[in-house]
Amino acid sequence: xxxxxxxxxxxxxxxxxxxxxxxxxxxxxxxxxxxxxxxxxxxxxxxxxxxxxxxxxxxxxxxxxxxxxxxxxxxxxxxxxxxxxxxxxxxxxxxxxxxxxxxxxxxxxxxxxxxxxxxxxxxxxxxxxxxxxxxxxxxxxxxxxxxxxxxxxxxxxxxxxxxxxxxxxxxxxxxxxxxxxxxxxxxxxxxxxxxxxxxxxxxxxxxxxxxxxxxxxxxxxxxxxxxxxxxxxxxxxxxxxxxxxxxxxxxxxxxxxxxxxxxxxxxxxxxxxxxxxxxxxxxxxxxxxxxxxxxxxxxxxxxxxxxxxxxxxxxxxxxxxxxxxxxxxxxxxxxxxxxxxxxxxxxxxxxxxxxxxxxxxxxxxxxxxxxxxxxxxxxxxxxxxxxxxxxxxxxxxxxxxxxxxxxxxxxxxxxxxxxxxxxxxxxxxxxxxxxxxxxxxxxxxxxxxxxxxxxxxxxxxxxxxxxxxxxxxxxxxxxxxxxxxxxxxxxxxxxxxxxxxxxxxxxxxxxxxxxxxxxxxxxxxxxxxxxxxxxxxxxxxxxxxxxxxxxxxxxxxxxxxxxxxxxxxxxxxxxxxxxxxxxxxxxxxxxxxxxxxxxxxxxxxxxxxxxxxxxxxxxxxxxxxxxxxxxxxxxxxxxxxxxxxxxxxxxxxxxxxxxxxxxxxxxxxxxxxxxxxxxxxxxxxxxxxxxxxxxxxxxxxxxxxxxxxxxxxxxxxxxxxxxxxxxxx
Length: 729
Hints:
Radius of gyration: 33 Å
CATH class of the largest domain: Mainly Alpha
Largest sheet: 2 strands, antiparallel
CATH superfamily of the largest domain: Amino acid/polyamine transporter I
């Protein structure tokens, strides 16, 4: 039966509608696929994911929970024990307040530019020190390995100092403090003071005999000190537990370990300012001696302090910044952390000399009391006439000014006989001029001062807990400088590597808890880090400025930060910093050559320190430490130069986005110098045929393309999309 015209028309209309629906559904399908892929990529951008070498599946890189956590981590790493016991000593030794000027100048010339450089490369490439320098120039990849070796050497003895602090912390819960008085020795007939303590002081005796039980030379091992062995084990357990999850575990601890020292320093400063003599100490500290400032040695020591205070070359700065978002303003971070470090050093200096001023005042009062007794005896015996003593002076209560007046009168009257009287001038400046640093400041001078504090156990607990936290903050950065590069490069489990690293370090570290262990700490401190770190940072500067190219690096910074850094950094990185670093290296080598290699040994019979030279095997160890630390640089260079390993096995350089997944495209970095983050041109990559390439921006992507849009010119290339003519859309 023939269809009437209305039915035919209806069927034709239905077919047209179905055709339109099919077309629309196809369009929706393609559009959904595109949107889905775009959405997944955007999510990856937010998460700041990265490519894992040797894997086809994207591995999400950990990230800091907040900017504050990251800043605290960098501050905790850079602000360490050196700020408390090294900077005040250098300030006193090198002209007081005049020392601050060369330090500040060198902070601007060396410190901030190089700190900014390390933050930049870590944040841009998002790898540890090995991956970063291998990425910029494979032939200089040994720089990263050298950083790891130096970090390991420093971690070995640095945690020993934390162990010492833990020991003193555990002994501080006593009243009176155990180092307050010299111990008494009993024999069959009578009781007497320990001779070694009587010849030195209670705090000195406690440090060398009770805490370290030190031997008389580095050649006398004396066996393990079990108390320090337990403390060293406890220190490594704390570090291991804090670092086992990387920044996810250590980052949370930073809130306490980085902030607590500031609370203690401020409390100490307020308390010390309320004590007699504290102002004398601060005045002595900041009285400028401008003539000393012109000496080359002052500038060399200021440059070295700037260099080590910021933790340059260790790899910890690079490791921490590698967990940042790529558009983070690392220039602001570099300036902020550097000045926090500087002002922390000044705060610590105020605290140290306020406390030492109080200690000097106490010692000066004892000196005046003892010498007044001698003067009274001399007056009674007729050696000194009563008539020369001013009538207003009452010997029962003599102020320091009155004593100095009497002393000067006696010195003038008894000009020839005066030396035989054995009187002391008791000047507070003489006590303040006794420069101490390092363990001598923390475990002897400062502990002695705290014994005179009211409620001394409380202040002792606070002080040594502060030292533990300062040490842990630096240790976290040091261990991160080892763990992150190895995990990034060799793809091992972070938890397993952390445990193995801490266990190995503890076993090797047993050499530092022998009775002669303190001498090995001195050896490692003098030779394992100074020259190797200088060479590492010089090579870092050369790699960026001359091998990679300072102009390209400045362009990369502009892309990453969204603004062009000041041209000041261009000239610093290219000209000034390399020259300053080379000068510092030469000066350090000359100083090391002129200074006889040796250590200060504690001689029990004399109850004093005596300088001893290292034995032959000790010199071999010193040289080996420096050679081993820098050896990876030439080894990796030779391997790369001679093509002893295959360098085309795929790397971070090139990736393709496929439905939200990141796929590796093997590529040899050797001949590619286009940018820090290399990438293939669009003709070499698979591309969907949407009439023309569709580009989307992603600041976190490690590929660069020639796309006309986007902040970094990055193209998202969607693989496996159905090929469609433009008309189908």
